[in-house]
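Please review the protein record below. Tell me whether the encoded fold seems credible here:
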Amino acid sequence: MKFMLMMNAPRGNGDYGVAKWSQEDFKAHIEFMHRFNAELKAAGELAAAEGLAPPKDARVVRAGSNGEPLVTDGPFAETKEFLAGYWIVQCDSAERAYQLAARASAAPGPGGAPLNFPIEVREVQSAPKV
C-alpha cells in the first residue's frame, strides 16, 4: 500500500518560521529529515519525498477559454496552515504509515524541541481498471 504523508506548517510568514531559527537549529532540522529519508529508503518504504516552496511562490493555474493558462496567486490568503512537504511511502498498513507520520511530526525545531507539525496521511489509490 502507498500512503502520502503531508507535512502541514503554520502559516506564519509563509516559510513556517525557519527564517527566525538559528543556523544550528535549521541544520539539525535538515539533518533529521535527511536521516529520516535515508532510514525510509533503507527499509524499502520511501517512494518519494520533497519539500515545497513557500506559499508566497505558489500559483493557481486554470485553463482559459482558448486552453491557455490563467495564472493567479496561490490560494493561501485564508489558511492557517500550508503544505510544507510530503513523503510517498510504501508500507504494509495504515498503522505503519501513522507511525512514520508521527516520526516526521517530531522533527526538531528551535532548541531541538519537536515541532509536532500535523501530518495528513492519505492512501494513494490506483486508477480503476477499465
